[in-house]
């Protein structure tokens, strides 16, 4: 059986690694690092640096592999994602069989935490359909935690609910009913621009927790245009961007 460990590594800050994560890395026989193309080589580089810094077990092998690319032209978003996940699970299977066979300890370093807007657990389910797999998760610091810490703000108001959503949901459906605080992830289009900004405050962060961290906060009517410009410049400079924001209605 394959013992598959999904290790949350935080948001790119090497200090986010927990002692539990480091122990799990050293217990693995094989650690797989996905390569997402030249424009996202920083992501693989950060994982590689974590391995070089913290792995002391000489028997732990670190292997990089090309991550399949999602077909953005597929008219069905969900079908495109399903096909993409099938391809990634197949790539995992190929690498695992090539390096440890059908029995061994394998780990993947997962950005943030595997439980929050990440598909690694779903990929593990797909892998388990074609080979015997036992999955365990090492929790990591999420982008939400890192954002709130960077701005020194609480996630929630006293006794009040919070909704975590995506840019696509915000664009298609507007502000969710029944909540005054929302956290928006996976937003490549600054979807807050689709809202009437009056009475809304925003706390935005890109590369949160990393040395490149950028923060903006204030009334959405004032800060929103700044965020749009800042995000475009940062993405052009780095070739990629990871950002997240919290908004609260007053």
UniProtKB/TrEMBL annotation:
One of its GO terms (molecular function) is precorrin-6A synthase (deacetylating) activity. Keywords: Cobalamin biosynthesis, Methyltransferase, S-adenosyl-L-methionine, Transferase. The keyword Nucleotide-binding does not apply. One of its GO terms (biological process) is methylation. It catalyses: precorrin-5 + S-adenosyl-L-methionine + H2O = precorrin-6A + acetate + S-adenosyl-L-homocysteine + 2 H(+). Pathway: Cofactor biosynthesis; adenosylcobalamin biosynthesis. Its EC number is 2.1.1.152. Residues 4-223 form the Tetrapyrrole methylase domain. The keyword Signal does not apply. This is Precorrin-6A synthase [deacetylating].
């Amino acid at each position: 059986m394959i013992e598959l460990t999904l290790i949350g590594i935080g948001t790119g800050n090497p200090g986010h690694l927990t002692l539990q994560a480091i122990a799990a890395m050293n217990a693995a026989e094989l650690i797989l690092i996905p390569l997402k193309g030249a424009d996202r080589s920083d992501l693989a580089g950060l994982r590689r640096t974590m391995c070089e810094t913290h792995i002391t077990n000489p028997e732990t092998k670190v292997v990089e592999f090309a991550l399949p690319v999602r077909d953005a032209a597929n008219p069905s978003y969900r079908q495109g994602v399903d096909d993409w996940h099938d391809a990634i699970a197949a790539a995992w299977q190929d690498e695992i069989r090539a390096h440890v066979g059908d029995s061994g300890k394998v780990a993947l370093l997962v950005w943030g935490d595997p439980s929050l807007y990440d598909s690694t657990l779903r990929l593990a389910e797909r892998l388990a359909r074609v080979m015997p797999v036992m999955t365990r998760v090492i929790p990591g610091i999420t982008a939400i935690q890192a954002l709130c810490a960077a701005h020194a703000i609480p996630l929630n108001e006293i006794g009040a609910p919070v909704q975590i959503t995506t840019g696509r949901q915000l664009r298609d459906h507007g502000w969710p009913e029944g909540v005054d605080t929302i956290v928006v992830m996976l937003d490549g289009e600054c979807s807050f621009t689709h809202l009437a900004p009056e009475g809304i405050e925003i706390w935005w962060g890109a590369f949160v927790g990393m040395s490149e961290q950028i923060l903006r906060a204030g009334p959405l009517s004032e800060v929103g245009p700044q965020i749009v410009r800042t995000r475009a410049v940062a993405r052009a400079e780095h070739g990629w961007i990871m950002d997240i924001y919290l908004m609260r209605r007053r």
